[in-house]
Amino acid sequence: MRQFGPTEVQPTTWAKLKLLSGDLAEALQDMDSALAEYAQALATSDLQLKARAYHKRGRVFKMRNVAEALAHYETCIQLSADAHLHAQLVAASVDAAWVYMEDYRDFARAAEHLQRAEVHLPESHAVLVAKWHNAQGEWHHLQQQYQAALAAFLQARLAALESQDVELQLNVVYNLGTCYAALGRFPEALGYLQEGRTLAVRVGDRNREGRCNKGLGEYYYWLGDYQEAVNYYTAAYAIFAAMHNQLWLTGICYDLAEAWSELGLWEQARRYYQEGIALTQTLEGERYRAAFQELASRFLVLQGSDLTTRTQQILAGLQAYGALTSQECAQLLGLSKEQTLRELQPLIKRGMIIKQGKGPKTQYRLADS
């Protein structure tokens, strides 16, 4: 079949075709092609189509480079304001709010975008109403205002059902599940997360299936069932790795490193910790960098692949018991007291553990405990 060139059709028609081609590529998980197709639509003089192209490119970049995503959203917002495209302005403002609150933890800027969106929110547009309430819920959730978050998510749920938008319903169901879990209402949490996963599998939405697997992993982690958490996290990891979704893959690496650490299986924990650290270098924003730093402060074994099996055992023992004498460390390692002291010295020099007291009452603790 012969392909049309940009000179063979009207410019607005060409832009519409490129947007459709980008949508198709995105549906097929070919994000590079999606970006390229959407880029060709940027040249149009039609402000509505241009704004849509910037918005669509921003949503693809959200998986890769949040700074570039934000730049696209802000351009879309300005174009939409100039052309009085209220629905487009609301959609881009809500997406920009997600970047500010999720990736930059800048809740003031996120609130500004949500307030702007609320001013122009068409109450008859169920999709936008659901998206706005969903974002408002997450704004509260991330600040641990769980009751306010739940109220917003429930409003989003009603609007999403009215819209018949399956993708939107999946997003809201996932957020409801995590919110109920944060409130300690685990039966409701499990119900929503399972509903979301079932729906995602039924419609073939791999991205949302991965998110629901992550949510189910978090659910079992909160219950202290770390092995079951690992099982769901691993399923989510496989999906996001296949999709090359670096943002969510980074989050799953954190989850797996944390869960394996709780199980005391340090080789697996360090594998995902190191992969996650590497992935944070490709992402803008401090969201995961700070999280991995906090994780390493909780589980010092993650900090060095050069640690011996014995030093790993010492750190794990101190993690579990809080403080140990040299005799207790020796019993833990099955070594003499003199050999144990030799194993302790490098950890003291590296600032990973501290020595307190003198004589038989001398104890060793983690440096941050």
Automatic annotation (TrEMBL):
SMART domains: TPR (SM00028)
Main location: cytoplasm
Residue stretches in coiled coil: 17-44
Subcellular location: Cytoplasm
Keywords assigned: Coiled coil, Cytoplasm, Repeat, TPR repeat
Pfam families with a match to the protein in the record: TPR_12
Domain of life where this protein originates: Bacteria
GO cellular component: cytoplasm
InterPro entries: Bac_ResReg_Asp_Phosphatase, TPR-like_helical_dom_sf, TPR_rpt, WH-like_DNA-bd_sf, WH_DNA-bd_sf
PANTHER family found in the cross-reference section: TETRATRICOPEPTIDE REPEAT PROTEIN 29
Family as reported in the entry's similarity comment: Belongs to the Rap family.
Protein name (record): Uncharacterized protein
